[in-house]
Amino acid sequence: MTALIRLVLLCLLLASPLHAAERTRYDIDYRVAFVPAQGVADVAMTHTPGSGRATHLEVRFDPSRYSQVRAQGGTLRNTGDRWTWVPDPRRASTLRWRYKVDHQRRGGGYDARLTRDWVIVRGDDLVPSMSVRTTSGSDSSARLFFDLPPGWTNVDTPFVHTRDRKGFVVVNAERRFDRPVGWMIAGSVGTRREFIDGMEVSIAGPVGDPVRRNDALAFLNLVAPEMRAAFGDLPSKILIVSAGDPMWRGGLSGPRSLYLHADRPLISENGTSTLVHELVHLVTRIRGAEGDDWIAEGSAEFYSITLLNRAGLLSDQRRDRAFEWMQNHGRNVRTLTGVRSWGPQTARAVGLFRELDREIRRATNDDKSLDDVMHQLVDVREVSREDLAAAVEDVMGRPSRVLDTPLLR
To answer: Out of 145, 146, 349, 399, which could bridge 167 as a Cys pair, Cβ 3.0 to 4.6 Å?
Structure first.
């Protein structure tokens, strides 16, 4: 056997699954304590080294929202609003901070609120994003726990419970460092849970607020199967949190979760649905690339009408009237590009997606539709107009004439 052949065989052997480097792990435990009297949450993040470990964590703490940053174990350095923590490599160590919960949106209404009886907040804010270095090949194994004030009986997150139901298993499949993101609710809270088309759905809101939990579950029993058909797999669990005033009177999606004001109708007078719009964001996780926010917003609004129709909640006649309303609302829009899609611009994008769906159906003798394009875009995630055009061409077999428009130039 020549030296070259031996070298090739050795390389193949080392590259085989049997000799692939094993993944190593370390534990991250998050613990959140709400302090209603002070309007804050005390957050602790404990790192415990295992077969692997995190070696360096860098995080920005906005001083207007975060305070009392400190560490027990390891070394902590501060430069302005940026903090660098090097956990103890041999034993458990903890980074702590305090977060001011209440946050009012421009124009009024809260999108985070801590009262004496309940809290609605995003995990993305409780635990801000971090830049993390680890030993080679290391993944985190993370859990989330809550220390609730006296009298607070319930807590829910987008994550499934630990086996002992004392906490939640935090999993971010796309990242090695697991962080508890998405909407969360705790306190004197009423919750309805149901498995719908294989997906656990929790709908929760403060006791006494006019949250239509059962109505929303019945609604989702019809819409969820249509979402699976249009976009593919659904999350294993979603959480919908809702409350009345003084919370913000709209809807906001997050990872596997969304917020919806209690007064928002399930179906609006113009034939759209804020709930379905936000669910489309939640399930597809599509966002527009720079200048192309219209793709995410326009497709979500297009499907808020289309899925209602497919589920039998909107007649063909009312569906067509809804699309006509969109066409009229966006009639003066001359371009779809921009940093953030706004009302008339999103309405004009809805019209373009409707034309695109019709074009695909005609070109494929109704064998394909915009659904097939969405299946591809779900994997892209950050979608540009070039990504959209490429997916349409792949589905249709030729470039789209609908997308060759001054609206996109």
So the answer is: 145
